[in-house]
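Internal tracking record. Fields below are filled automatically when a chain is submitted to the structure queue. Please do not edit lines marked as system-generated. If the sequence contains nonstandard residues, flag them in the REMARKS field before resubmitting.
Queue: standard
Priority: normal
Entity type: single polypeptide chain
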Amino acid sequence: MKLGCVLMAGTLYLSLVVLWAAQTLLAASFKTLQCERPVHTEESGCHMEDDLTDPREAGFQIKGYTFSEPFHLIVSYDWLILQGPAKPVFEGDPLVLRCQAWQDWPLTQVTFYRDGSALGPPGPNREFSIAVVQEADSGHYHCSGIFQSPGPGSPVTASAVAVTVQELFPAPILRAVPSAEPQAGSPVTLNCQTKLPLQRSSARLLFSFYKDGRIVRSRGLSSEFQIPTASEDHSGSYWCEATTEDNQVWKQSTQLEIRVQGPLASAAPPTSNPASQKSAAPGAAPVEPPGPLPPPPTPSSEDPGFSSPLGMPDPHLYHQMGLLLKHMQDVRVLLGHLVMELRELSGHRKPGTTKATAE
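SYSTEM-GENERATED OUTPUT FOLLOWS
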């Protein structure tokens, strides 16, 4: 049987009952359905689910009526049942399972199971609880026990109940706006994006940001981290973390590499030698011209200065050096001939000079 509450005219204290999972009750037992918050109306009434469309798809508002979530009620005639949660279970929530006996008769040797495996040794405790559930706690749970008296003397096993732990929020995704490769001097905003489910939309998440293993912004309500003026120092690996206010659930994003691009390189103006621009100080001795330059080295394929980028001699440079050496040799020969002629001229003039002196 599925019941849905319809809030119409009248003064009745009802609220939206958010119950999704099936609630199992033993026959002849007593159960009170109580709404959590008052809603003042003028009239109230209930309709079978077949008369209504899915309230979740209609946003709980249909033709002026406000509907609660559907409440699934199961009435059992078994000796033993396992009562599970009556509303969706999200990671971080507590989970309590109760092994309920017919007419609440006393039990002994109670054992709880998940997917066929015992969760502990038998004992008198009829409740099994998990303080903080995770998605890995999902499974099919059931319990077993022995009635002390009255009831059957043999062990009794309850039917399995499916428990699904839903994800509270997905792992956040870190995005850079406008780009993960911004230009130096431009602003950059890092967005830590995740979303809570509709049933937990009133919950709040806290966000923190990290760079290269160090925290750059501690936990806060804002999911954005702004860099007003990016510089090369802001380059690095960033990630963010989203956590609940009670620190029960936290998740990290994958790393995002930020590479700040430096300013565009501009052609540098030619610079002159400052030493050549300095004038000689008054009274300073004149600078003597430098002596003759030493002859250039003979080009060699082993000299890196004469090799091309591929490690082979540069033919053009090799040819120019050869011409230069040939010209230097020619000049040397001419200088030698000039010296010899000067010596001969000097030898011819010496006898004439001696004769003139004797007279």
